[in-house]
């Protein structure tokens, strides 16, 4: 199959075809995920937790993100590759541009993802021709401000702010949006309000696509599997079958169920 572009992903949203996404941090898993037909490979800074064993994503560096993005991009044939900008690598515009460029140039990513309604930063990167994915709701890089990995946007004001921030990111030229741990009804509404694809994690079935942390859905995470995730190894003997089951469950809108949603 030919490599997917941002246009192909956006067309899936327009046609109502669910978009499948999984995290990947190395060549072997990336190759299996790509072969199965998953649409997007996310080199997430969750690697700080599931690969490096830290308790948060905060220690992850840009050098490590470039390294893991290279491992993934070397073997990828079809999937669109998004790489996370780690904590404090986009705290000013110059740093943001330099670090995003590294993920694209050295890493081989097609788009970078950053957490929060970072208006100036998103505008600047888009002006430089760098594709940007927003990330709203639960922001793991702000865990010490948030206090807990909990559902976001439950109060009416917080829900309205999420809708406004999502709209703003789209206006500024973000090409995609990840919504993490928000009520399913709110995520559905935001997905309907935006023309860019909205990929949910713990955000219910109403999003345009779904993403999970690979090691959680393979049930081999060092941390307890979050409620919104699912053990896709159940009933299967090999990783490729489990990933295929996830891909099909996303495409057929069987995952996430109510038990994985808020
Ligand atoms: O780092 C990551 O894996 C992510 C997803 C959870 C969206 O940002
Ligand atoms: Na992340």
From TrEMBL:
The keyword Cell membrane does not apply. Its cofactor is Mg(2+). Pathway: Cofactor biosynthesis; (R)-pantothenate biosynthesis; (R)-pantoate from 3-methyl-2-oxobutanoate: step 1/2. It catalyses: (6R)-5,10-methylene-5,6,7,8-tetrahydrofolate + 3-methyl-2-oxobutanoate + H2O = 2-dehydropantoate + (6S)-5,6,7,8-tetrahydrofolate. PANTHER family: 3-METHYL-2-OXOBUTANOATE HYDROXYMETHYLTRANSFERASE. Catalyzes the reversible reaction in which hydroxymethyl group from 5,10-methylenetetrahydrofolate is transferred onto alpha-ketoisovalerate to form ketopantoate. This is 3-methyl-2-oxobutanoate hydroxymethyltransferase.
């Amino acid at each position: 199959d030919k490599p997917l572009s941002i246009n192909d992903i956006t067309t899936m949203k327009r046609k109502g075809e669910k978009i499948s996404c999984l995290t990947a941090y190395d060549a072997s898993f990336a190759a299996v995920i790509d072969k199965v037909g998953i649409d997007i490979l996310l080199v997430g800074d969750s690697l700080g937790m599931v690969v490096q064993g830290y308790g948060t994503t905060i220690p992850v560096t840009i050098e490590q993100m470039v390294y893991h993005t290279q491992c993934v991009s070397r073997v990828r044939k079809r999937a669109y590759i998004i790489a996370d900008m780690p904590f404090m690598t986009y705290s000013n515009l110059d740093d943001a541009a330099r670090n995003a460029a590294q993920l694209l140039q050295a890493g081989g990513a097609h788009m970078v993802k950053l957490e929060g309604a970072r208006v100036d930063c998103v505008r600047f990167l888009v002006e430089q021709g760098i594709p940007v994915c927003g990330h709203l709701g639960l922001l793991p890089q702000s865990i010490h401000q948030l206090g807990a990995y909990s559902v976001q946007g439950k109060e009416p004001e917080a829900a309205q702010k999420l809708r406004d921030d999502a709209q703003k990111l789209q206006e500024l030229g973000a090409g995609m949006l990840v919504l993490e741990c928000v009520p399913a009804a709110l995520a559905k509404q935001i997905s309907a309000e935006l023309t860019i694809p909205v990929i949910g994690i713990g955000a219910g079935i109403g999003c345009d696509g779904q993403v999970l942390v690979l090691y959680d859905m393979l049930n081999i995470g060092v941390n307890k599997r979050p409620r919104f995730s699912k053990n896709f190894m159940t009933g299967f003997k090999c990783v490729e079958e489990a990933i295929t089951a996830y891909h099909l469950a996303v495409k057929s809108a069987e995952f996430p169920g109510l038990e994985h949603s808020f």
